[in-house]
Amino acid sequence: MHEPGPSSARDVLNGLATFKSKWPGGWSWDARLDCICSSFRCDDNIIAETAIKPLFPIMWAEGNLRESPIVVQQLVERCGGLRAEQFMYCSQPVGGSFLFGLWWPWGDDVTLSFRLGLGGASRQRDLVQLRDLFAVDLY
């Protein structure tokens, strides 16, 4: 198996500046899933989807998750699975690392959450870089 180079996760993170500038909400740390999280109003879903699509060309849902790579299935399982209207977005992998996004409606027709993290061969320092980029504290 090919071992990813030290910059592969950093290469994946490079596209996030434009995404961040278009995103409709603020960000916080989700310690349970080791990713950043943004909650926003359902009214802003078009703005959010517009930011998501260029960065995350791959979308998995409850109905097609079995077709996804095993690393994606394991990540979804670790996050509690996907239910109706929940999606796992993935960037193209670079050197074994990829960005993932979890689209989670709250079910109240008012609020959505989007979690953004690193999958594959990411390391702790890559998560620090992700938090730094979005100015997110651990607490």
Outline the structure in words.
- The chain is of the alpha+beta class and 139 residues long.
- The chain has one domain (8-109, 120-133).
- Helix content is 31%, strand content 27%.
- The protein contains five helices and six strands.
- Strands 1-2-6-5-4-3 form a six-stranded antiparallel beta sheet.
- A hairpin with a 5-residue loop joins strand 5 (97-105) and strand 6 (111-120).
- Helix 2 packs antiparallel against helix 3 (45-55).
- It is globular, with a radius of gyration of 14 Å.
- The N and C termini lie far apart (37 Å).
- Residues 1-7 have low confidence and may be disordered.
Short description:
The chain is an alpha+beta fold.
Relevant terms:
alpha+beta, 139 residues, six-stranded antiparallel sheet, disordered N terminus, single chain
Biggest sheet: strand arrangement: 1-2-6-5-4-3
Strand content: 25-35%
Average residue pLDDT:
88
Total count of helical runs of at least 4 residues: 5
Low-confidence stretches: 1-7
H and E order: HHEEHEHEEEH
**How helical, in percent, are the residues?**
25-40%
> Structural class of the secondary elements?
alpha+beta
**Rg:** 14 Å
Number of strands: 6
Which helices and strands occur, and which strands form pairs?
Elements lengths: L7 H6 L2 H7 L5 E3 L4 E7 L3 H11 L2 E4 L8 H9 L8 E4 L6 E9 L5 E10 L3 H10 L6
Antiparallel strand pairs: 1-2, 2-6, 3-4, 4-5, 5-6
